[in-house]
Specification:
Protein name: YprB ribonuclease H-like domain-containing protein
Oligomer: single chain
InterPro entries: RNaseH-like_sf, RNaseH_sf, YprB_RNase_H-like_dom
GO molecular function: nucleic acid binding
Shape: elongated
Mean pLDDT: 94
Distance between the termini: 28 Å
CATH superfamily of the largest domain: Ribonuclease H-like superfamily/Ribonuclease H
Number of domains: 2
CATH topology of the largest domain: Nucleotidyltransferase, domain 5
Strand order of the largest sheet: 3-2-1-4-5
Number of helices: 12
Structural class: alpha/beta
CATH class of the largest domain: Alpha Beta
């Protein structure tokens, strides 16, 4: 889909992009080969320059160039081309304010290996790890995870960033991560029903009592938040390309879910729920 995309070019929105397609253009090469389109010579010249640069950037494997130019709702188009060097990330924190709250754990899935980072243990290693990836996928990460990461580590996350919250919102599918997982029938097993507020309680339990089972439950939950993003990304991509049947694009296949290296301990969850029966208002989406 990316090679059929024009809305990242100067002066081209979704409406103009549709007009380009209607004129018989379906690839950047069509513009470069002189396919006739109903635009002024100046606009055609701009398109030729933009399509040439796009081909160059794609060949150079430069997702950041495209991400800087595509609207958040259209960045799903990047996915098939740049998924070989990608990190699906999720963080857990002590609250919602990056200026006064801490990151407690981070889970990262790169399609091959699950990596986790824990405050007081190896959290500092995440800074070096995240710099390895040219693209990241998150849910609400543009508003939550990345600002937290940048504030906490004092860094700038330079990777192209597909935020699934916006990918699904442009399809009319709204709500938080767990709600969208339920929409697609995804099951969290023993971690079902846990949320961002409960993740705070699990961290507090671990920090105050040293309960390793509480930490493992938190990590099991955090890992699910990360690894589930891959198949959600695939579902989002496939739903989007259904809106463009004229391009005859192949849907992506679902991938096997990796084994969660951590276990959610039901006894710990039930113990905390007895002490905090009313739940809480923490929400990170």
């Amino acid at each position: 889909m990316l090679e059929r995309t024009f809305c990242h070019l100067k002066g081209i929105g979704n409406t103009t992009e549709a007009k380009i397609w209607e004129s018989g253009v379906s690839h950047w090469n069509d513009i470069l080969e002189g396919t006739d389109i109903p635009f002024s010579p100046a606009k055609v010249n701009e398109l030729e320059i933009g399509c040439g640069e796009s081909l160059k950037r794609l060949k150079e494997y430069d997702p950041i160039w495209f991400a800087d130019r595509l609207p958040a709702s259209d960045q799903w188009r990047l996915y098939p081309h740049f998924r070989k060097n990608i990190a699906y990330i999720d963080i857990e924190t002590t609250g919602t304010d990056a200026h006064c709250c801490d990151i407690t754990t981070i889970a990262l899935w790169n399609g091959r290996e699950v990596k986790t980072y824990v405050q007081g243990r190896n959290l500092h290693e995440f800074e070096e790890e995240i710099a390895k990836y040219q693209m990241i996928v998150s849910f609400n990460g543009k508003c939550f995870d990345v600002p937290f990461i940048e504030k906490y580590f004092g860094i700038k996350v330079k990777a192209a960033h597909i935020d699934l919250r916006f990918v699904f919102r442009s399809l009319g599918i709204t709500g938080g991560l767990k709600g969208i997982e339920h929409y697609f029938g995804m099951d969290r097993g023993d971690a079902e029903g846990l949320d961002g507020y409960f993740a705070v309680l699990l961290w507090n339990e671990y920090e105050m009592s040293g309960n390793e089972k509480a930490l493992e439950t938190l990590l099991a939950y955090n890992v699910l938040d990360s690894v589930n993003l891959e198949n959600l990304m695939i579902r989002g991509y496939n739903l989007h390309i259904e809106r463009f049947p004229q391009h005859d694009l192949e849907p992506l296949s679902k991938v096997p879910e990796p084994l969660n290296p951590f276990k959610a301990h039901i006894d710990v969850v039930e113990s905390i729920r007895r002490r905090y029966p009313s739940g809480g208002a923490f929400r990170k989406f």
